[in-house]
Amino acid sequence: MIICIDVGNTNIKYGVFEGEELKLSFRVSTDLKRTSDEYGTQLVSMLAARGLDAKKFDGGIISSVVPSLDFTMERMLDYYLGVKPLQIAPGLKTGLKMRADNAREVGADRIVNNVAAFRKYGNGKPMVVIDFGTATTFNILNEEGEFIGGVIAPGIKGSLDSLVDGTAKLPRVEIEVPKSVIATSTVTNMQAGIVFGFAGLVEYIVRKIKAELKAEEIVTVATGGFSEVMAREGKSISIVDKTLTLYGLKYLYDLNTEGVK
After folding, report:
1. Residue 207 in contact with residue 79, Cβ under 8 Å?
2. Domain encompassing residue 7
3. Please, what is the angle between helix 70-81 and helix 36-49, to 10°?
4. Is 78 a catalytic residue?
5. Is the pTM of this model over 0.85?
6. H or E stretch covering 161
7. What is the percentage of the chain residues whose pLDDT exceeds 90?
8. How far apart are alpha carbons 145 and 140 in whole angstroms?
9. Is a pLDDT exceeding 80 seen at residue 260?
10. Is 215 exposed, middle or buried (0-12, 13-18, 19+ CB in 10 A)?
11. Which of 53, 136, 143, 146 could potentially form a cystine with 97 if both were Cys, beta carbons 3.0 to 4.6 Å apart?
């Protein structure tokens, strides 16, 4: 078995693969104060609940945008699973050609998502890969699968948190689609602003990208916690794949251990 871990600013996503099958996936909150033992006992408990043996792992790979947790996660995997993981870092083979001004600035999660999207859904057309995470990132690939640039916008949950924290009377609400954009309560007013506002942001940015590329058709792949909601509220998202990052990590593990099929 192979373990794939995506360490984000808000959540840590775990995926366990046996061969090409994703046997288990789950996410936990990112907590900088948690020790490797706390993360390790949590992971072992989740594995045991699904009948998976922590001693049966052959390898692992980590993508992280939180450098202060890198050692914690590496030590956890070494001690609890007996695995010394690969890291998404300069020097690791990705097969992704970068045409950014500074490739080292591109986050590990964006690289993994781009690789996975092109491998799974590339069909000779330009692609936009959108990740609805702590930030909302748009990654643009040309017809050859080269990363040519992107857009970083605020995240949905972070925007709502900022709205609540910056005002005296607005309540904390669930992010749900209201029945109408003409909302009649404070809660639905806020939900309309967040959901429909971000849906409009996605539609406009994708339309601008398509126009600049002078492309008749593009493939738009969305991942992340709010990808399904945004896909329902707009017309620009072609594919929703909430496990995109985990499959990308598995592919990169295989690529760097000569296990690519």
Report:
1. no
2. 2-87
3. 50
4. no
5. yes
6. helix 156-165
7. 91
8. 9
9. no
10. middle
11. 146
